[in-house]
User: Which sequence fits this backbone?
């Protein structure tokens, strides 16, 4: 096993002053020298766009890459509900410490105190900056910013822009990025996919890319590489992610030596539109904000197929309100999702039968419409209601919505220290792509917060400190490490094309997704995980013997793109299941059925698993090495998470 | 459902294209339009034929990636709906559906139904921003903004940059897109300092990209999946005219600012 030093580099001193001390004491790069540094940013979502823009403003030369045809289309665009910030504008007792505490507790005590406190601190700056950029947040009649509540919090700290908060924040970051492109400080490379990381003498110094229009393979060198490539939820095939989302960038960095931390920490979001049939290509989220006014229920009796309006009040089970009276319908995501699965497993699900089971629960707005009127509900959630109607053909103003949990977000990701740097020097990882802030479960409206915190307010400081304190020899893309990485990328493409079998990449992806959803989804157990671990390598072998890619490599070829991503999912899936098998406890989104309380709640094991599991690649199909970063809690007491 | 598709196939930007007919069999009325195309593509791959290239990503109507003309209408027959959110239940069993790319000189075809809309990015790079650096912002509540104005700004900001407005316009005009981008800033105090300058720079960028002029057909408004109203175009035109009137003063202001350095 290689000798890897998992030092989180948390600054010394009291929690509340760690970040300010860091900023006062960290090394700086003087303005004239910044233009001597080139930075690669992969991904143009909230984390990538905000980082690229801010680094451009500071004077660095930035190359930013995205596989989409425009940076504005990165999947951050689809976030609906909102962004948290400890502004306490509502005077309801919020504070930086409370946001920090809620985030640590929401993550089931599997995140680092230092990182999370910093996140809570900078949350307030994000709102100020986005307002200054012209983000049209929701406002009160007095002209001040409006807030709403989200799961896992008893204060109202979520800022929003109707059901389009992600699009509005991303357009803000995109506008800042555009300004730097106009100023010549950022060069944007659209429809360009990163296919490998180039490491020279232990330092990340570049990437290999494929131009998705021409198929041209290219080399880019820089002084540091920032990955902001999002999560890996699409390993499940069906998820709320965009169809293009993939694990390729982070997985290929993993194959170059970056540690992958807690890959089994995946989030199943409780409020998505249920699966309607075989044709489905993705699942659609209905924002968690709906749980502010919607009430979740199922019939008390199993097999009750009466239409919802004919089921009398005393024959309904508002199970979240019953089980978790203090948080009710705003219980955290993992808890709400498992509760939905449980009632459906009991035969009390609603909606059409798919594969023999009714998998759906009602999210009912009848009370809210009676209380507030249809107009208010339309103002708050109009676009979500319209979207629901388009997809299902049902009108949620009249009939209760049907919802069911779906894969939505991945807390796991590449391991990073306090500087957001991985164990590979110079390789920084931002946003959903890293593992750092959400522990085993992310609270609603915290993904946007983290992406923008990393990009606008953290990486500009930590990257300067890296540059100022590191010897970075001059290299060009002629270096043998670039040639070798390019050779491997080309080889994989040729290998994919030469299989010439009978099955489409998509059919393998679908089969893998079903396997993972059944065995590494909302509930996991040893037998299921072992079954998946046996099946995944077989499926991978079949892929390499039987995949079929129509069309050439030197042209626009979506099958080839897809095949490369599926090949990585087929390796990554094994790592995810192994991590889930190894973590013999339940925490947050990772629910091992063997480890639960009598009431069916997650049973953590702090003695043996109060650590981040960080995996080191040793070869395809070979057992990876496990390194552990022990989590130290100095400021809060570990407790059983209770939302009762 | 069983349908007949007539789909625009074109190898690349330089090649000629043509409509090719494909059957779409056993389509679920609950599937989306793009899922129907996925299904046809799976069959084509099975036969070793090249699948139909089309762009899509979020498939929930917000990223603006999907872009196709369905039976002559960008994004298809349902108002306020992107192609990815269009569901097959709006068609009838036995229908013939014609599918073509968004057509405009400024949107060259990449392949089949995929077009290059980078012109939209370049227009926004020309001035679609507030010039504020990270770290320079006052408190978020320092400037109250009347709710009604903030709501109008949001209505404009709802534009997803898909380009349907251009594809629908006889002149291939990008005015609805452009005016929506400008209106977001026009209705917020943060956008005020650069209002005239931004209008001039973005309108000129759109001209350079080869988009046409607006001659008030309102096709753009009719096909916009986010229902962006065309009256934003009138607002934009007023600002553009104003820019011409105040341009001297505007230049002086800029010059003075530079002198102060």
Assistant:
């Amino acid at each position: 096993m290689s000798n890897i030093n998992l030092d989180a580099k948390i600054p010394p001193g009291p929690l509340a002053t760690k970040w300010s001390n860091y900023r006062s004491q960290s090394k700086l790069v003087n303005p004239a020298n910044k233009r001597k540094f080139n930075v690669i940013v992969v991904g143009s979502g909230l984390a990538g766009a905000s980082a690229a823009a801010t680094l451009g403003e500071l004077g660095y030369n930035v190359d930013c890459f995205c596989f989409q045809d425009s940076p504005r289309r990165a999947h951050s665009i689809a976030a609906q509900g909102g962004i948290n910030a400890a502004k306490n504008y509502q005077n309801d007792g919020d504070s930086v410490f409370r946001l920090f505490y809620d985030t640590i507790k929401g993550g089931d005590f599997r995140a680092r105190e230092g990182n999370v406190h910093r996140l809570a601190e900078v949350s307030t700056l994000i709102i100020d900056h986005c307002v200054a950029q012209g983000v049209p947040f929701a406002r009160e009649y007095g002209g001040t910013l409006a807030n709403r509540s989200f799961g896992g919090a008893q204060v109202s700290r979520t800022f929003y822009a109707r059901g389009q908060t992600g699009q509005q924040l991303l357009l803000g970051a995109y506008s800042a990025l555009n300004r730097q492109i106009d100023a010549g400080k950022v060069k944007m490379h659209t429809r360009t996919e990163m296919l490998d990381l180039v490491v020279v003498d232990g330092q990340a110094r570049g990437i290999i890319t494929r131009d998705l229009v021409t198929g041209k393979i290219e080399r880019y060198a820089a002084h540091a590489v920032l990955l902001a490539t999002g999560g890996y939820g699409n390993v499940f095939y069906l998820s709320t992610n965009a169809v293009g989302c993939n694990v390729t960038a982070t997985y290929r960095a993993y194959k170059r030596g970056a540690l992958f931390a807690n890959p089994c920490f995946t989030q199943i979001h409780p409020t998505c539109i249920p699966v309607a049939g075989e044709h489905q290509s993705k699942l659609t989220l209905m924002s968690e904000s709906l749980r502010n006014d919607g009430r979740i229920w199922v019939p008390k009796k199993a097999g009750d197929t009466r239409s919802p309006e004919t089921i009398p009040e005393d024959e309904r089970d508002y199970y979240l309100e019953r089980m978790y009276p203090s948080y009710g319908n705003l219980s955290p995501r993992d808890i709400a999702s498992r509760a939905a699965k449980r009632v459906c497993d009991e035969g009390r699900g609603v909606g059409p039968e798919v594969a023999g089971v009714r998998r759906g629960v009602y999210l009912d707005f009848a009370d809210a419409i009676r209380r507030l009127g249809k107009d208010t509900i339309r103002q708050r959630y109009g676009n979500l209601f319209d979207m629901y109607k388009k997809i299902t053909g049902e009108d949620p103003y009249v009939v209760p919505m049907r919802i069911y949990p779906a894969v939505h977000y991945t807390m796991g990701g590449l391991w990073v220290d306090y500087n957001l740097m991985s164990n590979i020097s110079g390789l920084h990882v931002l946003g959903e792509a890293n593992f750092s802030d959400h522990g085993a479960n992310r609270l609603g409206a915290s993904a946007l917060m983290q992406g923008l915190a990393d990009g606008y307010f953290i990486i500009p400081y930590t990257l300067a400190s890296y540059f100022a304190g590191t010897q970075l020899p001059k290299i060009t893309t002629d270096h043998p490490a670039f040639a070798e990485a390019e050779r491997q990328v080309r080889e994989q493409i040729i290998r994919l094309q030469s299989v010439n079998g009978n099955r489409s990449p998509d059919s393998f992806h679908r089969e893998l997704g079903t396997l993972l959803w059944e065995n590494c989804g909302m509930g996991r157990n040893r037998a299921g995980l072992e079954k998946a671990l046996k099946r995944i390598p077989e499926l991978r072998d079949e892929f390499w013997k039987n995949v079929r890619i129509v069309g050439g490599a030197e042209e626009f070829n979506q099958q080839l793109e897809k095949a490369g991503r599926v090949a990585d999912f087929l390796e990554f899936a094994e790592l995810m299941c192994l991590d889930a098998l190894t973590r013999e406890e339940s925490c947050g989104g990772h629910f091992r059925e063997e480890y639960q309380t009598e009431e069916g709640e997650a049973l953590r094991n702090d003695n043996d698993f109060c650590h981040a599991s960080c995996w080191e690649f040793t070869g395809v199909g070979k057992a990876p090495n496990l390194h552990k970063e022990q989590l130290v809690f100095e400021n809060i007491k570990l407790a059983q998470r209770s939302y009762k | 459902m069983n349908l007949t598709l007539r789909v625009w196939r074109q190898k690349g930007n330089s090649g000629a294209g043509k409509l090719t007919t494909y059957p779409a069999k056993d389509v679920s009325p609950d599937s989306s339009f793009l899922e129907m195309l996925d299904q046809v593509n799976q069959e084509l791959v099975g036969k070793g034929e090249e699948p139909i290239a089309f762009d899509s990503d979020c498939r929930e109507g917000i990223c603006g990636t999907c872009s196709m003309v369905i039976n002559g209408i960008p994004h298809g027959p349902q108002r306020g709906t992107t192609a990815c959110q269009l569901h097959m239940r709006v068609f009838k069993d036995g229908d013939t559906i014609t599918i073509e790319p968004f057509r405009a000189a400024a949107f060259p075809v990449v392949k089949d139904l995929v077009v290059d809309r980078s012109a939209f990015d370049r227009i926004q790079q020309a001035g679609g921003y507030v010039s504020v650096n990270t770290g320079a912002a006052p408190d978020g509540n320092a400037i109250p903004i009347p709710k009604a104005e903030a709501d109008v700004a949001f209505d404009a900001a709802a534009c997803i940059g898909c380009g349907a407005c251009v594809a629908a316009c006889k002149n291939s005009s990008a005015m609805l897109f452009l005016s929506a981008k400008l209106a977001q800033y026009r209705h917020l105090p943060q956008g005020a300092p650069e209002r005239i300058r931004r209008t001039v720079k973005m309108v000129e960028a759109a001209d350079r990209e080869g988009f046409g002029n607006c001659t008030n057909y309102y096709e753009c408004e009719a096909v916009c999946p986010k229902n962006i109203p065309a009256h934003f175009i009138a607002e934009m035109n007023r600002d553009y005219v104003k820019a011409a009137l105040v341009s001297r003063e505007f230049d002086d202001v800029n010059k003075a600012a530079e002198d102060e350095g």
User: Anything to note?
Assistant: The longest helix of chain A spans residues 558-582. Chain A is about 35% helix and 15% strand. Chain A touches chain B through 82 residues (CB under 8 Å). The domain at 270-406 of chain A is CATH 3.90.700.10 (Flavocytochrome C3; Chain A, domain 1).
